[in-house]
Amino acid sequence: MSNNKVNQTPLAATIAKGQMNEPEQATSSVQSLVQTPVQSMREGSTLYYATLKLRDEDRQQILNALNLIKTLSSCLTGVHDPSVAQTKLQWWSDEISRLALNEPRHPTTKQCAKVLAANEHVQAQLTHILDAATAARFDAPDGDDTWRELMQRDYAARLSVLQTSLGDESKMPLDEFALAIAWVDILSSLPSRIHHDGIAFPPTFYERFNVSTQELRKQLRVEGQKISVPQSTSKMQPLLDEAIDCAERSINEAIKSASYEQLVSKNQRALVIWLQIRRAQLHLWKKQQPNLFRETMTLTPLKKWYIAFRYR
């Protein structure tokens, strides 16, 4: 979001008061305001194994924080009406402020209140996430440096919120991990990002490989909740290979950093295991060269369990 405060509309004021009796058309426009993208602790997933050794309470706090992050980062997905976008951004900005006062209203923020409420640092990080969602939707980066800064700020904020959800108030630098996690997240959700006008690759990627987001979007096939690129995308494979190389370099640099050693020494095993599983997944992608525009390829649960056991 820009520094200019978005004026609250009458509709936003009505929602903020908890009065959901808007006209049918308005309701359909903002109905996702109170819908939460549920993040589950699916058995066999990377999240499941990364948090396997945590207490049940801590695992639930991470899950609650991830749900809040997902809700904020996707709050403008599918929104094309500027007035609706302003309403949602204003409402969520106000909700972040209410959480800081320990007066949240949304189910997702209520779930996080126990560990995230009344915390100015958390308030600032959640605002960074909301700002990044705004930039991704309406003010896409025009250069690689701007793209990198946006990704680092967004994902460093996400990591900081997760860190706080586990009771760690150290506020250690997380920029090295942020870019690596951003790359993996992008590569894991390419068709959806392209379909919803989300930010994918740095601007020069498209120029270097003579590919445009418009060209990719025209090839998308949407079947219910499934989005794929059915046509041959051999032209896109060099771009994917370069992106995987960048992701692998970022995650290797993060693991070699002093911050990673701090994670190990502070017993932040969940993030350590998550990084190691993602590094192994990038190695698999590099070896097998899957077309990530059309398919997914993940490590087997046994391989994830082994990595979790090794770095427990």
SSE map:
Layout: H1 10-16, H2 24-30, H3 46-50, H4 56-73, H5 82-100, H6 107-116, H7 120-138, H8 144-165, H9 175-188, H10 190-195, H11 203-208, H12 213-219, E1 221-223, E2 226-228, H13 237-256, H14 258-265, H15 269-288, H16 301-310
Antiparallel strand pairs: 1-2
Helix pairs in contact: 1-5, 4-6, 4-8, 5-6, 5-7, 7-8, 8-9, 9-13, 13-15
What's the quick description here?
This protein is about 65% helix and about 0% strand. It has about 300 residues and is mainly α.
What does this molecule look like?
By secondary structure, the chain is an all-alpha fold. It has a domain of 116 residues. The chain is 63% helix and 2% strand. A two-stranded antiparallel ribbon has the order 1-2. Strand 1 and strand 2 form a beta hairpin. Helix 1 runs parallel beside helix 5, helix 5 runs antiparallel to helix 7 and helix 9 runs antiparallel to helix 13. The chain is globular, with a radius of gyration of 20 Å. The N terminus is likely disordered.
